[in-house]
Q: What sequence folds into this?
């Protein structure tokens, strides 16, 4: 599991790219920043990423926000 760097979290465009819909019972605004992610496959920036929110402790489950190419950051 990885979390986004501070540069991604504080850049409004990049942060918005990682904000995904969730049910209202998870967040009243129905959108949540999902910095937690895993790389699928190879070890380069071409490998797809899976961004998620782990709400299992609150008995809400795990929410997948995105699966696809690496999102924008300082390296892409």
A:
């Amino acid at each position: 599991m990885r979390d986004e760097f501070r540069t991604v979290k504080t850049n409004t465009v990049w942060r918005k790219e990682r904000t995904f819909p969730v049910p209202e019972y998870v967040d009243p605004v129905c959108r949540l920043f999902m910095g937690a992610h895993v790389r699928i496959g190879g070890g380069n920036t071409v490998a797809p990423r899976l961004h998620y929110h782990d709400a299992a402790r609150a008995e809400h489950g795990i929410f997948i926000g995105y699966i696809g190419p690496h999102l924008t950051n300082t390296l892409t």
Remarks:
- The longest helix spans residues 12-17.
- The mean pLDDT is 90.
- The two ends are 20 Å apart (CA to CA).
- Residues 21 and 31 are 4 Å apart (CA to CA).
